[in-house]
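Tokens help. One example:
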Amino acid sequence: MSESYFPRWREVTPAEGAVVAPDERLSWPHTGVMGVQHVIAMFDATVLAPILMGFDPNIAILMSGIGTLIFFLITGGRVPSYLGSSFAFIGVVIAATAYAGKGPNANIGVALGGIVACGVVYVVIGAIVQAIGTGWIERFMPPVVTGAVVAVIGLNLAGIPIKNMAASNFDAWMQVVTFVSVGLVAVLTRGMLQRLLILVGLLVASVIYAVLPNGMCLRKPLDLSGIANAAWVGMPSFTAPVFDTNAMLLIAPVAIILVAENLGHLKAVTAMTGRNLDPYMGRAFIGDGVATIVSGGVGGTGVTTYAENIGVMAVTKIYSTAVFMVAALIAILLGFSPKFGAVIQAIPLPVMGGVSIVVFGLIAVAGAKIWVDNKVDFSQNKNLIVAAITLILGTGDFTLKFGGFALGGIGTATFGAILLYALLNRGQRSTR
């Protein structure tokens, strides 16, 4: 009998530390608990990304759940991954919309059109991979390239919290309090509390901000009226995309970055599960691309597979795709709570700035980790030059203009890394 499209999860009761495979599951109550844990793991980053772009966090949470279900359906439930808001879009969205960093983004429609275009490009890449295999992707994007591109995302965004999210000296000190709080949680706590270092650190810093005296006008009073007035259940505010050519040309190349992220995540899950997921790579790209199109079509951010959730899998050794189906359903329920969105909007801006410093730094370090994990040899001039130039192009926001179109730092660094590696690699071969 032929294998069914979706896995027929076999219920298991594993010994402590034993692996639960993608086509296995715990009891449904335990699966539900694990689903909650995965929602919590993705929560802080998925919420932070839309805030930094002026998007509605409720929509982002809702679309992360819907996107994960789309991914589940297209991959046949074979790939354990959660889709959340991608940070790769932040720089290009801010550039395309001229977003000032506070409140709703007035030009969100233009950004959404670019996100939809990015999703279309992503689907096309996935279709090509599905048709001819993964070898060409790995040749064009070896670890030295993917590591540099991921690192550049964090480095390019570094100026946002430092320049735009600290209006006063007090705000700057609150950023220090925030990232120190996150650091202490990361080092001094254990278990699930440690896994939630961003969320817990944010809560601690918010409490400190709230209790500090305002008699000397050091801070803005917290406005909690929005929380009190928000309904517990309600429809999110959907927004339609506007298809502006310049914005689409600026944002669409992010698909290359999403490919790099997804490729890295699939390789990581393959290593952890011992299951070869390469046959599902094309479908994974298509699933992520379709999810990005659907999200951008209603007002959500572009989505990507989440390293946070891969980390949870690594710790728990539970790789059941049933867990991610449950997590997606929980996220969808949260998306229909305006009260939840109001709580997010009430977080003080300097606290969000401090969290952003941590998150963007972690993204940069994740790029370096790709180099370390793959033992990239920087004694080879080819690798050294590609990494060096890519980092500076992205960090310095090097911009190239083609007529009325401008390719910003992340896009320039991404395409520069791919093309430069191809050129130097070919040159190296020709000298042998």
